[in-house]
């Protein structure tokens, strides 16, 4: 199927600013779905609130645009009640880890088969540039005019610690890697977390003097490195890209619940 | 037949009824005094191939049932006061996106953590107006376990008919008291399933285009029709819009589908109302004390009557006005500071005749409490 057949053309033009990285994430994701040969009817896309969350409306899947931070709660209900559906949950950084932080760690703990995409642009875009839990110490935002004193989460470490059985990271500069990672994340039988660093030139870039969109993507290129590379050993400040966890042995939640049903029915199922 | 007679808590009666109505998905978070509902669901649902999940909080619980409802399942969650407050944003979402769902609130004393193990009817207005924005709501209640059963089935039927969340407001006495419950045979109480669209695959399906009767035929997530569900104001395809005409029509529809069907939705029971000069109005467990007073005083020839509300919202203004037209005194018996009293005052022609008989201290309101109020009204002193 052609990529454009996966989108809802009447929803366009999209509302993202020129230079925003979210369109690249959408593109990479659709390529992953296309390369996996998935049908539109088997995918449910559940998003929260924010710039990132509009992505669910742009795709011609079953789409559920929910409440700020609650996407994983809704997604859990969808997946558990109909496990044959493939559930993809794109979220922004505030969405996933501020208001939704508790839902995030619990979804990871349960290991319910869904793909959580954290579209990390380090800022609240839709409300106009306030700092997020991923902005990081020393950054600037409209609510941090004297620079931000909040420290950020490392999404990968957090997801690992919470028990996610698939954890990966990449950037919008590495669009092909994103597609490749998402393909593996979607077919993974467990909770997958994929963090994608995405640029917000309008707010994060401007407030933090990072130049235009291409400069920000250059920054991704220069400040990230494949997992375990020599460059990382020489410069520990580099951010690693790739798949950090891929545990196929941790029992998946819906499969485990099927066993509960079997026990409850005493073998009558 | 004897298998159908049980000696149970009200919370268990609610579980039995939900299963009778076809519930097969429950998500919840334990909170006193509603916890037995979650516990029973975790036992019963997997026995019939249904699903139970204990979420991390009440917010995600209500979200999970909305997700499950969209895949075509009958869903429910249960909570109490503080948990119900947390559920408000999900409740609003279910109203806006028109998702059939049932939310049980076994009320406890508040505000805040208040009185977890004591009866209260303090969430009547939270049920009505807890959600931000203008909206209609259905909230039902019950005083006996048989009522709990009937009204719970009714709640599912209303949720599926009008594509809306329905709130069940019980109180701690009803939730925890044990009494007899007769479970009706299959088919004895009608069970409504949601209306599914007859639009064929490939034909443009409008998930939010209401029929003339206000009903919206649904398509399950995972079936042929793909559409967008959002809490934003949306058009007939479910796509976000700011168009004032579209927004106006959509919000009117949300209100009208309930307002225009008040007679189907509301339920009220009358005792000794034919010639009543003093009318007691009550609901939930306090209606049991009120009934006791009315029955005993009738025996002495006093012209007392009781209206027991089984549905609180939409409020049956017309019915109350009609039934109280000849009453000299109207006494509203409730365990709060007058949340339904206010609605009754709006309904009747002479609001000055409306008096509140209440308790707010976590102690169940007794017939004696009500009798004392009656003596005051009748000028006999306490």
UniProtKB/TrEMBL annotation, chain A:
<keyword id="KW-0560">Oxidoreductase</keyword>
<protein>
    <submittedName>
        <fullName>2-oxoglutarate ferredoxin oxidoreductase subunit beta</fullName>
    </submittedName>
</protein>
<dbReference type="InterPro" id="IPR029061">
    <property type="entry name" value="THDP-binding"/>
</dbReference>
<feature type="domain" description="Thiamine pyrophosphate enzyme TPP-binding">
    <location>
        <begin position="49"/>
        <end position="196"/>
    </location>
</feature>
<dbReference type="Pfam" id="PF02775">
    <property type="entry name" value="TPP_enzyme_C"/>
</dbReference>
<dbReference type="GO" id="GO:0045333">
    <property type="term" value="P:cellular respiration"/>
</dbReference>
<dbReference type="GO" id="GO:0044281">
    <property type="term" value="P:small molecule metabolic process"/>
</dbReference>
<dbReference type="InterPro" id="IPR011766">
    <property type="entry name" value="TPP_enzyme_TPP-bd"/>
</dbReference>
<dbReference type="InterPro" id="IPR051457">
    <property type="entry name" value="2-oxoacid:Fd_oxidoreductase"/>
</dbReference>
<dbReference type="GO" id="GO:0030976">
    <property type="term" value="F:thiamine pyrophosphate binding"/>
</dbReference>
<dbReference type="GO" id="GO:0016625">
    <property type="term" value="F:oxidoreductase activity, acting on the aldehyde or oxo group of donors, iron-sulfur protein as acceptor"/>
</dbReference>
From TrEMBL, chain B:
<feature type="domain" description="Pyruvate flavodoxin/ferredoxin oxidoreductase pyrimidine binding">
    <location>
        <begin position="16"/>
        <end position="228"/>
    </location>
</feature>
<feature type="domain" description="Pyruvate:ferredoxin oxidoreductase core">
    <location>
        <begin position="276"/>
        <end position="370"/>
    </location>
</feature>
<dbReference type="InterPro" id="IPR029061">
    <property type="entry name" value="THDP-binding"/>
</dbReference>
<dbReference type="InterPro" id="IPR009014">
    <property type="entry name" value="Transketo_C/PFOR_II"/>
</dbReference>
<dbReference type="Pfam" id="PF01855">
    <property type="entry name" value="POR_N"/>
</dbReference>
<keyword id="KW-0560">Oxidoreductase</keyword>
<dbReference type="GO" id="GO:0016491">
    <property type="term" value="F:oxidoreductase activity"/>
</dbReference>
<dbReference type="Pfam" id="PF17147">
    <property type="entry name" value="PFOR_II"/>
</dbReference>
<dbReference type="InterPro" id="IPR002880">
    <property type="entry name" value="Pyrv_Fd/Flavodoxin_OxRdtase_N"/>
</dbReference>
<dbReference type="InterPro" id="IPR052368">
    <property type="entry name" value="2-oxoacid_oxidoreductase"/>
</dbReference>
<protein>
    <submittedName>
        <fullName>2-oxoglutarate ferredoxin oxidoreductase subunit alpha</fullName>
    </submittedName>
</protein>
<dbReference type="InterPro" id="IPR033412">
    <property type="entry name" value="PFOR_II"/>
</dbReference>
């Amino acid at each position: 199927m052609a990529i454009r057949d996966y989108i809802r053309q009447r929803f366009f033009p999209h509302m993202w600013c020129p230079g925003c990285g979210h369109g690249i994430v959408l593109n990479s994701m659709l390529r992953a779905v296309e390369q996996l040969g998935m049908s539109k009817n088997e995918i449910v896309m559940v998003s929260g609130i924010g710039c990132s969350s509009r992505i669910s409306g742009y795709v011609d899947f079953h789409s559920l645009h929910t409440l700020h931070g609650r996407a994983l709660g809704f997604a859990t209900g969808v997946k558990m009640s109909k496990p044959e559906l493939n559930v993809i949950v794109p979220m922004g950084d505030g969405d996933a880890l501020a208001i939704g932080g508790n839902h995030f760690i619990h979804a990871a703990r349960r290991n319910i088969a869904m793909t959580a995409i954290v579209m990390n642009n380090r800022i609240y875009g839709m409300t106009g540039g306030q700092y997020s839990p991923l902005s990081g110490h020393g950054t600037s935002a409209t609510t941090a005019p004297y620079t931000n004193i909040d420290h950020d989460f490392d999404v990968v470490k957090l997801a690992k610690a919470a028990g996610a059985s698939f954890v990966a990271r990449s950037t919008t500069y590495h669009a092909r890697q994103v597609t490749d990672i998402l393909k593996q994340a979607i077919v993974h039988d467990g909770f997958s977390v994929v963090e994608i660093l995405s640029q917000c030139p309008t707010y994060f870039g401007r407030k933090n003097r990072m130049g235009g969109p291409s400069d920000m993507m250059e920054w991704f290129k220069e400040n990230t490195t494949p997992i375990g590379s020599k460059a990382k050993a020489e410069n520990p400040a580099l951010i690693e890209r790739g798949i950090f966890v891929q545990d196929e042995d941790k029992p998946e939640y819906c499969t485990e619940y099927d066993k509960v049903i079997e026990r409850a029915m005493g073998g009558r199922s | 037949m004897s298998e159908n007679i049980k000696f149970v808590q009200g919370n268990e009666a609610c579980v039995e009824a939900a299963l009778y109505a076809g519930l097969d998905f429950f998500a919840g978070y334990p909170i006193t005094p509603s916890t037995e509902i979650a516990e029973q669901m975790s036992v019963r649902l997997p026995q019939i191939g249904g699903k139970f999940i204990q979420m991390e909080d009440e917010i995600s619980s209500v979200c999970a049932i909305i997700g499950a409802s969209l895949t075509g399942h009958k869903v429910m969650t249960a909570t109490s006061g503080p948990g119900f407050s947390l559920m408000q944003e999900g409740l609003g979402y279910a109203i806006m996106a028109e998702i059939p769902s049932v939310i049980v609130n076994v009320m406890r004393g508040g505000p805040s953590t208040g009185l977890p193990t004591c009866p209260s009817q303090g969430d009547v207005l939270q049920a009505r107006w807890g959600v931000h924005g203008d909206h209609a709501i259905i909230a039902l209640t019950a005083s006996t376990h048989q009522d709990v059963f009937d009204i719970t089935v009714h709640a599912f039927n209303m949720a599926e008919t009008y594509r809306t969340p329905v709130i069940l407001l019980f109180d701690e006495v009803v939730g925890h008291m044990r009494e007899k419950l007769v479970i009706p045979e299959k088919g004895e109480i009608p069970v409504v399933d949601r209306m599914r669209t007859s639009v064929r695959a490939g034909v443009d399906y409008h998930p939010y285009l209401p029929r003339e009767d206000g009903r919206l035929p649904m398509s399950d997530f995972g079936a042929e029709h793909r559409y967008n569900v959002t809490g934003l104001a949306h058009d007939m395809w479910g796509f976000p819009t700011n168009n004032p005409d579209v927004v106006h029509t959509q919000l009117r529809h949300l209100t009208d589908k309930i307002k225009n069907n008040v007679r189907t939705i509301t339920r009220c029971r009358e005792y000794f109302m034919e010639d009543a000069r003093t009318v007691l109005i009550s609901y939930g467990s306090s209606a049991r004390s009120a009934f006791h007073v009315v029955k005993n005083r009738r025996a002495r020839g006093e012209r007392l009557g009781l209206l027991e509300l089984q549905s609180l919202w939409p409020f049956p203004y017309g019915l109350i006005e009609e039934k109280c037209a000849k009453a000299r005194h109207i006494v509203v018996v409730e365990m709060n500071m007058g949340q339904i009293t206010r609605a009754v005052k709006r309904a009747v022609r002479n609001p000055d005749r409306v008096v509140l008989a209440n308790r707010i201290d976590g102690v169940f309101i007794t017939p004696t409490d009500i009798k004392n109020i009656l003596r005051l009204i009748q000028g006999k002193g306490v």
